């Protein structure tokens, strides 16, 4: 039975949850397929995550390998293919708890960077799992800055081989997934040397484990890098190479080649590489970032209407904690953000699709914009959602701290996204570089990509709002965000210019402005997110039932951003002190409005209990019963702890004599 | 162990420092003699082979619990052997033994024994204290229930007096009433002090404390009527057996109710306690520990992140030159140095509360409790403010270490998961902020009605004479000197006054709309929390600034002045909306503040490593490969990884079980 407090929340929904779910999925057909995939996965005991919180690193890893192997069978059985509409829901249904994710990156890198001949040789082997691939780029001492990698590949003309080496400790490959225990092959990035000359980073296919008995190949030292905050199921690995020889044909040569006599030839454009990175950054936003936030909101909000604490009114029963304004202030903006970023993901996908069509027509003009947007949004969205999930965790008080709440694992997983695929600060600075360039171009009348034409708009003026209701007008707050973004970008550009004109070296000037530049890049992304949310709501005119609540969420997202970054809006007087009080008042009013629909709004994300895997967040709200039952499964309660016989007993009985 | 040379970057950093780190260490410890004694105790533990063990990161939860119990038992014996009895020295010993982590006897030593001392009658002390002191009885303190935390009156466990047998009957009437979370309850303890609603002669007399045996002495089996166990895996606290406890008609003798204050007589007559103000004292003390813990945890994270940032090289700053230390990037300095300044600020705040508490608790014994309400209100807010800030700061430090920060070998994940519950325990932070707000609003009301207030809130007195008028900006703003910490503290004061006034007025407005008192309070609570935060921020800025004049060594004072200025200016920069909106600072001044923050980053840069060296964490205590004193990071990461459980065999068993069969089939 459903906890009555939770049941009541659902009766008063102002909209149809099912309609919202379908809209979020992008149509009834997709909802149907998604549910079918989830059902098929969750009804299969091999994919169960029931014991996940009690497993050791070794057990997690083994389960992930087992699931990956079983998934091949399952896909065959169900008739799912990698290009089918079901595929994208499989990973979601597994909650990512599966091995061989790097195997796919291995295959993709060969497809993109390899020649036709190489693709024909390696892809079928990989597709049949005759080998298991990984992708070895980062080293102990080197991450985001690829030119700094130290692994070497020296061409030996006499044997027509490359000799790969790890010249020093900081050059040990470190972090690649699936490499610690599983992979038989990996794509190693190394500095290519031919006749003593360095040609920079190149990818090489290297076999690291025997295909017969899985033992390490000669010259290879590889293993697991040890426990991490999460991803215990993945064997992130290290790799040391000692005079490992691979044939000349193992350098991926879609874009460049070392000929038998050592002649180095470059062909085609490597710009397509950037496109791969862009695709990865955008694709992770949905699965790795927005969905975990949606889950965290679901857990925290459902729990907050089941949990009662203190009395709001004397004589009444203790209040649901979601009725406290401070709890609403913590959770509801995160809920609005989950929606905002779901929509920004759609926006980015569209941008990407458009870009891809251009690239297919050999037009690479959109690449800089795509690259800047994917970098900036990857950074902004991962950072925002990471802190949002942490807020959800802490909003659940003590029980949030239990692994059984599901929140600690969501948090430790999402926070890794701030680092992988490019460290966030570095990515924001890449976006800033693009914005400064566009701003300079726009201010001299040159053309800029449509997404940044706003930079050409003058920044003068004041916010016209006269009362708190004016701040519920998307035009008013979108303009405020736009103004703020333009101001931060233009003032940073001016500062850079000043420094350079006063004789500071360009790179020094850049470093001196980086704090501001990163802030400007974030402001840009924040503005686009608000603008896109407002535009999405406007397009909902035909769906009156959900438009109203989406409008409230959009207002909340926008006003919360102004409320919590008041300084940047007040700084040049665009918003006055009195107007800021109106923003605050409107924001607080909205909390009370959205409060009423909070549970339906998380129900609409349509996560099954098994997907959430949370004692606090289940659909039926039987929080305490479940917490109690799940705790019984803990190994600490099942096994007889040796600690009693070994230490406690002597402590309890023999201590006196020793004292 | 092979001795390694110090990393060249770190050696250079240390050589370039403008002050002697030991002098600063002495200030943090409270004198050179305290430092000497601390290091003496540290050496006792670190050189003791009994306290050495495998890296805990590679152990399962059960194994970690076992290690902790082993060390705790030894610790108790050795403390007595060495005659260490001073609370601070015990604290040092314990944190070296357990390397800053919790341990299963924490509640026995920290709550069970002290509660017996303060709330048991002499007769009860005779029965329980010595056995507990000698660890025949191991106890815990069972307060929180599954459905109830900070709001104590909501607890549901009942203790019903039966005059016929002169016993209390304890019950957990609902699932939500099951005791949940107490440390050491799951597996370790054989007794618990249980908080329950007392029923006698058909009436509920509210919460009282009872000594309840839960496990059989000798076999350690749970007693009939008692269901007890471990609550399962958590984010951290792996070595702690946080437990649950369910009681069904469990009878204890009348004499097991702690009766120093309230009493139940044999016939069931209830005798009321005198004042309950005394319990404030314990709360203040525990909160002061959390403030100190915020400082220490953040200091540890800063030590790791700053040393690593001096060792790590990445990208290029100047074309053609070698990759620079990441600590040379402005964005990295901007992440770390304000946190370093914050860690120092919190150290001084922790010391201040401890001193004030000592002074006032002297007064308590002499019956002068007049300062206690303010200290109680202030420590609630400071507990919340410092733990929230440190919590976020630790994460910031971890992020600043990039990918390697995510590995357990960095040590920061452990610092974080161990620290983060302090935002919840001993009073959930938002609730704490609202307690402080209640005091602030009360003080404001007193001032409005013509009374004067004293202490840290005395700035509210000024409100009645010079009303804060956001419109009259220029005159006030001109008076703030952005290079002078003392003048900036005045700005913080004005901000606190403005936000307290705004919250109090909004509260009044809600009341005028005929909202009930509770409703009005709830509808103003976001404002009220902001007001409390501003008040705490002011107090911290004030205490840090005041500390500067006490530093006698000129070189140390100079570097601490830079740090203090950074702390104060960064706080303004981060909260500039408040200062702008209240007209405390003008637009141009904010621009100057932002600029000055960045200039200070460059000023502090040469002393950054020396400033974390001054925290003086031993490598064993720091528990971080990235933060090692000698800076030999990469070699030791490699050595560490080799010990990973997944590396125990060269070919993992899952190859034979899953991979090979699949390859054969496909």
UniProtKB/TrEMBL annotation, chain A:
Start and end residues of each Acyl-coenzyme A oxidase N-terminal domain: 16-132
All residue ranges annotated as the Acyl-CoA oxidase C-alpha1 domain in the record: 274-436
Active-site annotation: 421
Domain of life: Eukaryota
Subcellular localization, as worded in the UniProt entry: Peroxisome
Record-level GO BP terms: fatty acid beta-oxidation using acyl-CoA oxidase; lipid homeostasis; very long-chain fatty acid metabolic process
Principal cellular location given in the protein's record: other
Keywords, comma-separated and alphabetical: FAD, Fatty acid metabolism, Flavoprotein, Lipid metabolism, Oxidoreductase, Peroxisome, Phosphoprotein
Entry coiled-coil feature ranges: none
Residues where FAD binds: 138, 177
Domain Acyl-CoA oxidase C-terminal span(s) in chain numbering: 474-652
KW Oxidoreductase (keyword) present: yes
Cofactor(s) the protein needs: FAD
GO CC annotations on file: peroxisome
GO molecular function: 3alpha,7alpha,12alpha-trihydroxy-5beta-cholestanoyl-CoA 24-hydroxylase activity; acyl-CoA oxidase activity; FAD binding; fatty acid binding
Claim: Transmembrane is one of the keywords in the record: no
Matching Gene3D superfamilies: Acyl-CoA dehydrogenase/oxidase, N-terminal domain, Butyryl-CoA Dehydrogenase, subunit A, domain 2, Butyryl-CoA Dehydrogenase, subunit A, domain 3
Record-linked PANTHER family: ELECTRON TRANSPORT OXIDOREDUCTASE (PTHR10909), PEROXISOMAL ACYL-COENZYME A OXIDASE 2 (PTHR10909:SF344)
Family: Belongs to the acyl-CoA oxidase family.
Designated name of the protein: ACOX2 oxidase
Organism: Podilymbus podiceps
Gene behind the chain: Acox2
Automatic annotation (TrEMBL), chain B:
Domain Acyl-CoA oxidase C-terminal per the UniProt entry, residue ranges: 485-662
The EC number(s) this enzyme carries: 1.3.3.6
GO biological process annotation, one example: fatty acid beta-oxidation using acyl-CoA oxidase
Domain Acyl-coenzyme A oxidase N-terminal: 21-138
Subcellular location: Peroxisome
The entry's keywords: FAD, Fatty acid metabolism, Flavoprotein, Lipid metabolism, Oxidoreductase, Peroxisome, Phosphoprotein
Domain Acyl-CoA oxidase C-alpha1 as annotated: residue spans: 280-441
Any one cellular-component term (Gene Ontology): peroxisome
Matches recorded under InterPro entries: ACO (IPR034171), ACOX_C_alpha1 (IPR055060), Acyl-CoA_ox_N (IPR029320), Acyl-CoA_Oxase/DH_mid-dom (IPR006091), Acyl-CoA_Oxase/DH_mid-dom_sf (IPR046373), Acyl-CoA_oxidase (IPR012258), Acyl-CoA_oxidase_C (IPR002655), AcylCo_DH-like_C (IPR036250)
Active site location: 426 (proton acceptor)
Pathway: Lipid metabolism; peroxisomal fatty acid beta-oxidation
Principal location listed in the UniProt entry: other
Annotated ranges, domain Acyl-CoA oxidase/dehydrogenase middle: 141-249
Required co-factors: FAD
Domain of life: Eukaryota
One GO MF term: FAD binding
Family matches, as Gene3D superfamilies: Acyl-CoA dehydrogenase/oxidase, N-terminal domain, Butyryl-CoA Dehydrogenase, subunit A, domain 2, Butyryl-CoA Dehydrogenase, subunit A, domain 3
Similarity remark: Belongs to the acyl-CoA oxidase family.
Name of protein: Peroxisomal acyl-coenzyme A oxidase 1
Gene name in the database record: Acox1
């Amino acid at each position: 039975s459903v906890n009555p407090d939770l049941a009541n929340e659902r009766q008063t929904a102002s909209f149809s949850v099912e309609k919202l779910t379908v809209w979020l999925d992008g149509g009834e057909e997709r909802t149907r397929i998604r549910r079918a995939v989830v059902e098929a996965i969750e009804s299969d005991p091999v994919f169960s995550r029931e014991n996940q919180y009690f497993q050791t690193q070794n057990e997690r890893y083994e389960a992930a390998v087992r699931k990956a192997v079983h998934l091949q069978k399952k896909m065959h059985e169900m008739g799912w293919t990698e290009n089918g509409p079901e595929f994208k829901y499989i990973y979601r249904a597994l909650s990512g708890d599966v091995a061989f994710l790097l195997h796919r990156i291995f295959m993709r890198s060969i497809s993109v960077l390899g020649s036709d001949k190489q693709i024909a040789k390696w892809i079928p082997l990989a597709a049949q799992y005759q080998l298991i691939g990984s992708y070895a780029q980062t080293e102990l001492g080197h991450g985001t800055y690829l030119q700094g990698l130290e692994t070497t590949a020296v061409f030996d003309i006499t044997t027509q081989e490359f000799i790969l080496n790890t010249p020093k400790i900081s050059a040990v490959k470190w972090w690649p997934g699936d490499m610690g225990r599983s992979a038989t092959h990996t794509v190693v990035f190394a500095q290519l040397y031919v006749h003593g000359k360095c040609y920079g980073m190149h990818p090489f296919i290297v076999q690291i484990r025997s295909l017969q008995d899985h033992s390490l190949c000669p010259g290879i030292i590889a293993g697991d890098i040890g426990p991490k905050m999460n991803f215990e199921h993945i064997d992130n690995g290290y790799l040391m190479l000692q005079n490992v020889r691979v044939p000349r044909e193992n350098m991926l040569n879609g874009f460049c080649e070392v000929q038998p006599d050592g002649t180095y030839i470059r062909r085609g454009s490597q710009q397509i590489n950037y496109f791969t990175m862009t695709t990865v950054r955008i694709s992770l936003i949905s699965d790795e970032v927005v969905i975990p936030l949606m889950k965290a909101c679901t857990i925290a909000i459902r729990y907050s209407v089941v949990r009662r604490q203190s009395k709001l009114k004397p004589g009444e029963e203790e209040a649901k904690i979601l009725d406290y304004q401070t709890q609403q202030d913590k959770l509801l903006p995160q809920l609005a953000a989950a929606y905002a970023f779901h929509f920004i993901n759609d926006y980015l996908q569209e941008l990407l699709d458009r870009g891809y069509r251009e690239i297919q027509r050999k037009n690479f003009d959109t690449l800089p914009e795509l690259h800047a947007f994917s970098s900036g949004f990857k950074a902004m969205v991962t950072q925002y959602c990471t802190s949002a999930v942490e807020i959800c965790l802490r909003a659940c008080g003590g029980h949030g701290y239990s692994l059984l709440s599901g929140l600690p694992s969501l948090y430790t997983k999402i926070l890794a996204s701030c680092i992988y695929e490019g460290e966030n600060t570095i990515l924001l600075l890449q976006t800033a570089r693009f914005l400064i360039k566009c701003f300079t171009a726009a201010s001299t009348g040159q053309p800029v990509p449509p997404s940044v034409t706003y930079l050409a708009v003058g920044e003068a003026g004041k916010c016209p709002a006269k009362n708190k209701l004016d701040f519920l007008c998307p035009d008013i707050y979108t303009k405020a965000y736009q103004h703020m973004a333009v101001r931060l970008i233009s003032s940073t550009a001016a500062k850079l210019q000043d420094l350079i004109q006063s004789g500071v070296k360009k790179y020094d000037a850049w470093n001196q402005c980086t704090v501001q530049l990163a802030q400007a890049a974030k402001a840009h992304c924040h503005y686009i997110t608000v603008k896109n949310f407002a535009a999405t709501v406007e397009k909902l005119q035909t769906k009156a039932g959900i438009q109203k609540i989406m409008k409230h969420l959009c207002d909340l997202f926008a006003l919360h951003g102004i409320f919590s970054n008041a300084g940047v809006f007040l700084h040049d007087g665009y918003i006055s002190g009195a107007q800021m009080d109106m923003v605050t008042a409107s924001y607080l009013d909205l909390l009370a409005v959205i409060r009423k629909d909070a549970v339906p709004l998380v129900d609409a994300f349509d996560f099954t209990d098994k997907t959430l895997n949370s004692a606090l967040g289940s659909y039926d709200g039987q929080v305490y019963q479940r917490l109690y039952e799940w705790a019984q499964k803990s190994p600490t309660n099942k096994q007889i702890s040796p600690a009693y016989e070994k230490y406690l007993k002597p402590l309890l009985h023999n201590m006196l004599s020793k004292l | 162990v092979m001795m390694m040379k110090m990393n060249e970057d770190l050696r250079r950093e240390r050589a370039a420092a403008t002050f002697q780190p030991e002098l600063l260490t002495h200030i943090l410890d409270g004198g050179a003699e305290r430092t000497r004694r601390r290091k003496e105790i540290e050496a006792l533990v670190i050189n003791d082979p009994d306290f050495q063990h495998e890296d805990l990161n590679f152990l399962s939860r059960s194994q970690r619990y076992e290690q902790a119990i082993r060390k705790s038992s030894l610790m108790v014996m050795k403390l007595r052997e060495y005659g260490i009895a001073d609370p601070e020295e015990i604290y040092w010993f314990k944190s070296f033994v357990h390397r800053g982590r919790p341990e299963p006897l924490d509640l026995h030593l920290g709550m069970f024994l002290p509660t017996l001392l303060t709330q048991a009658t002499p007769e009860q002390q005779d029965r329980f204290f010595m056995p507990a002191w000698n660890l025949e009885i191991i106890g815990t303190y069972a307060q929180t229930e599954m459905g109830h935390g900070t709001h104590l009156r909501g607890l549901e466990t009942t203790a019903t007096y039966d005059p016929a047998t002169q016993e209390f009957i304890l019950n957990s009437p609902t699932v939500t009433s099951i005791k949940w979370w107490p440390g050491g309850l799951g597996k370790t303890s054989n007794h618990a002090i249980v908080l329950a609603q007392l029923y006698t002669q058909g009436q509920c007399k509210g919460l009282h404390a009872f000594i309840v045996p839960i496990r059989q002495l000798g076999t350690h089996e749970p007693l009939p009527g008692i269901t007890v166990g471990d609550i399962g895996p958590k984010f951290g606290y792996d070595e702690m057996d946080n437990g649950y406890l369910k009681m069904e008609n469990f009878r204890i003798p009348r004499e097991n109710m702690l009766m120093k204050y309230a009493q139940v007589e044999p016939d069931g007559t209830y005798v009321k306690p005198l004042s309950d103000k005394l319990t404030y004292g314990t709360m203040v003390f525990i909160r002061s520990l959390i403030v100190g813990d915020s400082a220490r945890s953040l200091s540890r994270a800063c030590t790791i992140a700053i040393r690593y940032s001096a060792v790590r090289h990445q990208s290029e700053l100047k074309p053609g030159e070698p990759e620079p230390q990441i600590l040379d990037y402005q964005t990295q300095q901007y992440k770390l140095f304000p946190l370093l300044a914050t860690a120092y600020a919190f150290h001084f705040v922790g010391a201040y509360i401890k001193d004030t508490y000592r002074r006032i608790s002297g007064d308590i014994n002499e019956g002068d409790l007049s300062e206690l309400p303010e200290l109680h209100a202030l420590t609630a807010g400071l507990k919340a403010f410092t733990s929230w800030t440190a919590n976020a700061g630790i994460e910031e430090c971890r992020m600043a270490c990039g990918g390697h920060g995510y590995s357990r070998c960095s040590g920061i994940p452990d610092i974080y998961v161990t620290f983060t519950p302090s935002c919840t325990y001993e009073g959930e932070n938002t609730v704490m902020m609202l307690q402080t707000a209640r005091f602030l609003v009360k003080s404001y009301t007193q001032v409005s009605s013509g009374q004067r207030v004293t202490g840290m809130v005395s700035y509210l007195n000024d409100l009645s004479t010079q009303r804060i008028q956001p419109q009259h900006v220029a005159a006030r703003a001109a008076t703030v000197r952005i290079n002078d910490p003392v003048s900036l503290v005045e700005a913080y004061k004005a901000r606190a006054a403005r936000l307290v006034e705004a919250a109090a007025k909004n509260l009044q407005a809600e009341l005028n709309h005929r909202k009930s008192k509770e409703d009005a309070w709830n509808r103003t609570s976001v404002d009220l929390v902001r007001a409390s935060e501003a008040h705490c921020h002011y107090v911290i800025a004030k205490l840090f600034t005041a500390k500067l004049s006490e530093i006698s060594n000129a070189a140390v004072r100079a570097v601490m002045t830079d740090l203090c200025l950074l702390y104060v200016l960064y706080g303004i920069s981060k909260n500039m909306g408040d200062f702008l909106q209240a007209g405390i600072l003008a637009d141009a001044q904010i621009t100057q503040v932002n600029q000055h923050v960045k200039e200070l980053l460059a000023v502090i840069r040469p002393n950054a490593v020396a400033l974390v060296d001054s925290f003086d964490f031993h490598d064993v205590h720091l528990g971080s490969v990235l933060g090692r004193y000698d800076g030999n990071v990469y070699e030791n990461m490699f050595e560490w990884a080799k010990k990973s459980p997944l590396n125990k065999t060269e070919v993992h068993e899952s190859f034979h079980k899953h991979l090979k069969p699949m390859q054969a089939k496909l």
